[in-house]
Design brief:
Blueprint (H helix, E strand, L loop, with lengths): L1 H19 L6 H50 L2
Helix pairs in contact: 1-2
Amino acid sequence: MQIVLLLIIGAAAGFLATRMMKLNTDIPTTVLIGVGGALVGGLLLRFLAEMASWAAGFVGALAGALVLIWLWKTYVKR
């Protein structure tokens, strides 16, 4: 069932992409373009999401360290 769904989504994405780029292709090529684009786009988006989560983790760690330093300077070191 997932393969059929991938082919349907690939056909739709390939159709839209070929029309947007003004490219005339046959149906199998259009489906292959869409499925290939889904694979490339999915991997790219996963990579970008992973990089964003690492960056968010770093920003959170930095903010936590700044709060701890502020607490230390305000309440402990007098």
